[in-house]
């Protein structure tokens, strides 16, 4: 009996989960070690982090608030990755969604039951408009979407700041660089957690079913894996690219809508909070599977939330960033290692 | 087992020259598959060593181990008498081992010169395009492989791409050149050129390992032959002691039954009177405006096999694309059941019962990175039990994949693994079976035996005749005239996009077809219909 280690082409989800859990624990141990070496009390910090995230009601509420936009931007990036496209512009589409929603919220007055759907509709439309040019350029002229979507992020961020300090600025209190508080809000569900959270969960679940269990989802998968084979099977690849990218813009915008209408209640500069970029991280962690977006978003939310807690304890922002990086780094190592498995080769198999 | 000549001992080497490459007890396991088991082999300077074996016998895997792509699970690699560990292809090429793969690994968007210099230690830093192209030209002259340094890979024919691959390897001073089914995609002329160059390479004291399913060419060019079966080496023979029949028997482990493929069994469907599909004066142009098909008119009848002969690149690709709805003619009509098709659409053609075994399975017939079930569903995902009402049932797709794999006699350890992990020949078998399933009325098969072992070729040609006997119309594009004369009822000859003639296979002879393939018109040859 000889035992050898070899790399398998596919990994079962359970295996992956075990390795990832191991990776996270390893990262936390490493962090603890470094914190202890630099003279801090890891136990104290750990206790604080646990208490202000999963260990208390307020912590859990915070986690859910972080998770809501991350699920949606993560789903936005995942859906394009299915067709072999990287939407780096979820940040910009988030802003566009926020602007669209805030515009309706500020200037259309009526019952919330009417205004909220209108805000959502308008926000989603703005997000789709924001990705429209990269979409057409990609589908009809094969222009690389990574650059075009990325550049539009900066435009969207500046536009938001301009609106928040300029034309839409709150002239009544005049203090903040933001618009006035919107008269309508997504109703709260549990503490500060609003209905955006379960809705985002539902959106991800529906998306997962669409991608895995519909003909359209299959066509997207084939188009992404080999466009030439897709054409051979009669799949309209261009139409699928356009649809997927617009859907992605809509999802990222939805995150913006929920943030404006549920959490922040006003439009302000920097409202996207890098959620668009963290969506890319979530998508990478999710490895192209929509359902994986849920745990990936939870992990990301936990990391972001802990980061804030740690910063209140005089850990610098760059230390927090380094810890975040370490966790993600260990996970990607774990992902790779999960492929390896010892295989026993009996003498009968190899005489 | 067989009456093969005693294995092994070819003429002894001059004393003191160790073999260039010596494999000792190499084994490689994949989950559920023993790809190589205890393979020992030596390759001497100045020989062309052929490696034969059925599809999935482990030939490509063994060579991937020799070039550092895979690590062996057991065994040793000895180079020039010294044991070596080759951790990567870069290390292998530094040790003088270069490989041209079954599926080319060039960067399609780059030029020839860029591909040659990619990842090469000798590439001058910050070299201009002009310098790279000049260096490429010099290399091309030195090794006798004509290439166009400034051409983009995507625009090159298979033969030209292969020359680039070989030149890439030779430029890095390879002394052992490994070619995995190099002639599968070459025209006979290109193959002859390749062999001439290989002989020059051998004369300089270098060695070649050649994987091929074409026994004739192996007999022609090789000095010794090793045969793998089920991952194990059966033996090494001096080519002079071999015959094609004996090689075939040793490879497969049993006799290959030949049957008369053109004869119809009792009860076979007769040739249909009305054509199922027809082309009328069809002309197509490529993006540069050059005519690729010129004024082609033909009819396909159920119950009949129409062979298409011709040197590759004379319009075969376009013809198969027009017949399957992938390419709209620039002039002329496609008649489906006598009705002109306004806008051809491949999905519509597939639903009408037209199957298509494409010439380049990896590029257009499969999504290599997706799993086997997804790939097998490609033609039936839009109908029950997989599709239906916009859904997609992964379970049903897997059941279909299982069914296709069983019919194709391909053993699959794991349906969730990417299809590119299957051996080249097994991929081809699956595509063929998948297309045969939907081909209720017409099957367009482009080089269906490419990459298949002799046993599998007989099987696939048998599938075609079975379909014919069920009343399906078949187009068989092939470069192998013998194969065409064996199975086709009529043979059309393409030359520069023109259908030179369509002749009755029963009365046709190789010579006439050969002349037509070279562009001589029917008037010169006589006896055509
Ligand atoms: N990366 C891989 N993962 C899993 N199985 C593999 C992998 N590569 C090869 N195999 C399996 O190993 C066996 C040998 O494959 P290999 O490609 O070496 O065959 P081959 O002799 O080159 O056949 P062909 O003539 O069809 O090209 C096959 O059963 C194949 O499915
Ligand atoms: Mg092979």
From TrEMBL, chain A:
Its membrane topology: Multi-pass membrane protein
Record keywords: Cell membrane, Membrane, Transmembrane, Transmembrane helix
Keyword Transmembrane: yes
Compartments, record wording: Cell membrane
Superkingdom: Bacteria
Main localization of the protein described in the UniProt heading: membrane
InterPro entries in the record: ABC_transp_permease (IPR001851)
Gene Ontology MF terms in the entry: transmembrane transporter activity
Assigned GO CC terms: plasma membrane
Chain segments annotated as transmembrane: 16-37, 63-85, 92-108, 114-137, 149-169, 189-211, 239-257, 277-303, 315-334
Name of the protein this chain belongs to: ABC transporter permease
Species this protein is from: Gluconacetobacter tumulisoli
């Amino acid at each position: 009996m000889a035992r050898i280690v070899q790399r398998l082409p596919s990994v079962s989800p359970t295996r992956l989960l075990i390795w990832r859990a191991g990776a996270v624990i390893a990262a936390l141990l490493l962090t603890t070690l470094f914190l202890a070496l630099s003279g801090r009390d890891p136990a104290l910090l750990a206790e604080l982090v646990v208490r202000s995230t999963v260990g208390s009601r307020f912590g859990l509420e915070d986690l859910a608030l972080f998770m809501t936009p991350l699920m949606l931007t993560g789903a936005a990036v995942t859906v394009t990755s299915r067709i072999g496209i990287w939407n780096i512009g979820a940040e910009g589409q988030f802003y566009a969604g926020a602007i669209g929603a805030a515009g309706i919220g500020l200037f259309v007055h009526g019952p919330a039951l009417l205004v909220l759907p209108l805000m959502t509709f308008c926000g989603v439309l703005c997000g789709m408009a924001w990705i429209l040019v990269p979409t057409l350029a990609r589908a009809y002229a094969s222009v690389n979407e990574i650059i075009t979507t990325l550049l539009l992020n900066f435009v969207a961020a500046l536009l938001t700041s301009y609106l928040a300090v300029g034309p839409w600025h709150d002239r009544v209190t005049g203090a903040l660089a933001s618009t006035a508080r919107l008269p309508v809000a997504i109703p709260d569900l549990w503490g500060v957690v609003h209905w955006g959270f379960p809705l985002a969960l539902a959106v991800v679940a529906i998306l997962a079913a669409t991608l895995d269990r519909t003909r359209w989802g299959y066509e997207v998968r084939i188009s992404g894996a080999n466009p030439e084979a897709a054409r051979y099977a009669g799949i309209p690849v261009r139409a699928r690219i356009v649809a997927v990218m617009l859907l992605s813009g809509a999802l990222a915008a939805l995150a913006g809508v929920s943030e404006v209408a549920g959490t922040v209640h006003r439009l302000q500069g920097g409202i996207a909070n890098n959620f668009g970029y963290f969506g890319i991280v979530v998508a990478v962690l999710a490895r192209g599977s929509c359902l994986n977006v849920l745990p990936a978003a939870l992990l990301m939310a936990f990391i972001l939330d802990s980061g804030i807690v740690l910063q209140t304890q005089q850990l610098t922002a760059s230390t927090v960033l380094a810890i975040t990086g370490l966790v993600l780094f260990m996970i990607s190592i774990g992902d790779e290692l999960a492929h390896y498995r010892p295989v026993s080769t009996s003498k009968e198999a190899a005489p | 087992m067989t009456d093969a000549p005693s294995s092994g001992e070819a003429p002894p080497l001059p004393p003191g020259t160790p073999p260039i490459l010596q494999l000792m007890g190499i084994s490689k396991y994949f989950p559920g598959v023993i790809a190589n088991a205890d393979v020992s082999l030596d390759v001497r300077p100045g020989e062309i060593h052929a490696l034969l074996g059925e599809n999935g016998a482990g030939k490509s895997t063994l060579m991937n181990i020799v070039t550092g792509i895979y690590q062996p699970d057991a065994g040793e690699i000895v180079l020039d008498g010294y044991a070596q560990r080759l951790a990567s292809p870069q290390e292998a090429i530094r040790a003088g081992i270069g490989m041209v793969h079954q599926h080319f690994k060039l960067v399609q968007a780059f030029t020839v010169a860029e591909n040659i210099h990619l990842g090469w230690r000798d590439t001058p830093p910050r070299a201009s395009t002009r310098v790279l192209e000049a260096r490429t030209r010099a290399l091309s002259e030195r090794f006798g492989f004509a290439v166009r340094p400034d051409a983009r890979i995507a625009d090159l024919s298979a033969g030209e791409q292969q020359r680039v691959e070989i030149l890439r390897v030779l430029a890095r001073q390879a002394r052992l050149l490994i070619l995995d089914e190099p002639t599968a995609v070459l025209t006979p002329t290109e193959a002859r050129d390749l062999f001439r160059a290989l002989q020059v390479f051998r004369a300089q004291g270098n060695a070649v390992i050649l994987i091929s399913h074409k026994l004739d060419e192996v007999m022609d060019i090789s000095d010794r032959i090793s045969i793998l079966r089920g991952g194990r080496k059966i033996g090494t023979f001096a080519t002079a002691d071999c015959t094609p029949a004996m090689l075939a028997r040793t490879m497969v482990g049993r006799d290959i039954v030949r049957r008369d493929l053109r004869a119809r069994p009792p009860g076979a469907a007769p040739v249909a009177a009305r054509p199922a599909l027809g082309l009328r004066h069809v002309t197509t142009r490529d993006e540069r405006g050059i005519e690729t098909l010129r004024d082609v008119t033909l009819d396909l009848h159920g119950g009949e096999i129409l062979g298409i002969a011709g040197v590759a690149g004379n319009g075969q690709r376009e013809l198969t694309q027009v017949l399957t709805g992938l390419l709209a003619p620039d002039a002329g009509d496609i008649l489906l059941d006598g009705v002109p098709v306004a806008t051809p659409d491949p999905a519509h053609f597939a639903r009408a019962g037209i199957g298509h075994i494409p010439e380049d399975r990896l590029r257009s017939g499969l999504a290599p990175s997706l799993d086997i079930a997804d790939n097998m569903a490609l033609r039936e995902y839009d109908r029950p039990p997989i599709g239906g009402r916009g859904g997609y049932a992964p379970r049903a797709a897997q059941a279909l994949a299982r069914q296709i794999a069983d019919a194709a006699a391909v053993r699959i350890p794991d349906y969730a693994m990417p299809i590119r992990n299957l051996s080249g020949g097994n991929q081809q078998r699956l595509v063929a079976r998948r297309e045969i399933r939907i081909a209720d009325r017409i099957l367009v098969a482009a080089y269906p035996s490419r990459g298949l072992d002799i046993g599998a070729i007989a099987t696939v040609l048998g599938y075609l005749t079975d379909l014919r006997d069920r009343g399906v119309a078949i187009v068989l594009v092939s470069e192998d005239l013998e194969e065409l004369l064996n199975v086709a009822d009529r043979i059309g000859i393409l030359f520069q996009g023109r259908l030179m003639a369509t002749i009755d296979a029963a009365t046709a002879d190789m010579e006439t077809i050969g002349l037509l393939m070279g562009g001589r018109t029917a008037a010169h040859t006589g006896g055509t219909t």
